[in-house]
Amino acid sequence: MASVGINKVILAGNLGKDPEVRHLEGGAVVANFPLATTETYKDKNGNKIEQTEWHNIVLWRAQAEYAEKFLKKGFTILVEGKLKTRTWEDKDKNKRYTTEVYGDSITILIGNRREDGIIGQSNASAAGNSSDNASANHSSAASDDLQV
Q1: Fewer CB atoms < 10 Å away: N or C end of the chain?
Q2: 70 near 136, Cβ under 8 Å?
Q3: Looking at the domain assignment, is residue 2 inside a domain?
Q4: How many separate domains does the chain show?
Q5: Mean pLDDT of the chain
Q6: Where does the pLDDT of residue 115 fall: very low under 50, low under 70, confident under 90, or very high at 90 and above?
């Protein structure tokens, strides 16, 4: 009997810094950035408590190129993807692990309206010509959102 599993992550949060983008041999592009998600609740005394979790986001190919062009520190985005854990040895030969979110799609929820020039524009004018849109798999989620 075959086993069934689902590895699906949906996060909405704020970029902790501008994406770090690398262009690899063979033309592959990868982008990495931290994403903060904050949960707010009240403790038993009625005090507001904010609890922030940081997630390592990894984007490849068209999504990485999109991140390089449009994402900036502080933007609120929605990321859909899957969890991947990788291992490596540090300089002291200790085995280390890190879990990352490999993004399949990104939607800008809130950007910097004065500086980015993205929010409120159509995908064609914000993301380039129509062939760029098709190759990067851009689509509009709402009039104020861009998705890749």
Answers
A1: N
A2: no
A3: no
A4: 1
A5: 81
A6: low
Neighbours of 16 (CB within 10 A): 16
Whether 57 is covered by a domain: the verdict is yes
DSSP string, the chain: --------EEEEEEESS--EEEE-GGG-EEEEEEEEEEEEEE-TTS-EEEEEEEEEEEEEHHHHHHHHHH--TT-EEEEEEEEEEEEEE-TTS-EEEEEEEEEEEEEEEE--TTTS--TTS-HHHHH-SHHHHHHHT-B-SSTT-EE-
CATH number at residue 36: 2.40.50.140
Residues pairing with 102 in the sheet: 58, 82
Four-residue CA torsion sign, 113, 115, 121, 127: negative
Note the pLDDT tens digit of each residue in 46-77: 999 999 999 999 999 999 999 999 999 999 99
Give the gyration radius of the chain's Cα atoms: 18
Q: Which of 1-15, 27-41, 53-67 has the lowest mean pLDDT?
A: 1-15
Among residues 56, 54, 52, 104, the alpha carbon closest in space to that of 79 is found at: 104
Q: Say what the pLDDT of residue 112 is.
A: 67
